Amino acid sequence: MNLIEEFNTYRGQMNEKIMAADNKVIKRFFNLDTNTYAAGAVNVKTKEMIGLACSMVLRCDDCIKYHLGKSFEEGLSKEELFEVFSIATVIGGSIVIPHLRRAVEYWEELENTVK
């Protein structure tokens, strides 16, 4: 199983278990997250780039993978990707670099899915 399949399978399985608990607060938070990244005054691609930069600064590898996948789906180019990476690195500092490495590896996996 590759990085993408492993991440998506685990995320899906665990989200099902979380939602099965039927907790109103958690469900509302998940819904808030979904609606935040929907198209509005700011397009989805831009929102995903913002989410990716913030996730890198916050050092959340799961969030980084999620936003990389969504950014890929939205047609983010490699040049745009590295501009997002540069913003995250400037804001977050050198602590972002290990996450940058893993993000590049994950992006390469995404690129390999279309070859």
TrEMBL record:
GO molecular function, a single term: peroxiredoxin activity
Gene3D superfamilies according to UniProt: AhpD-like
Q: Give the keywords, sorted.
A: Oxidoreductase, Peroxidase
Write down the SUPFAM superfamilies for this protein, in alphabetical order.
Answer: AhpD-like
Which parts of the sequence belong to the Carboxymuconolactone decarboxylase-like domain? 27-105
What domain of life is recorded for the organism? Bacteria
| Name the record gives this protein | Alkylhydroperoxidase
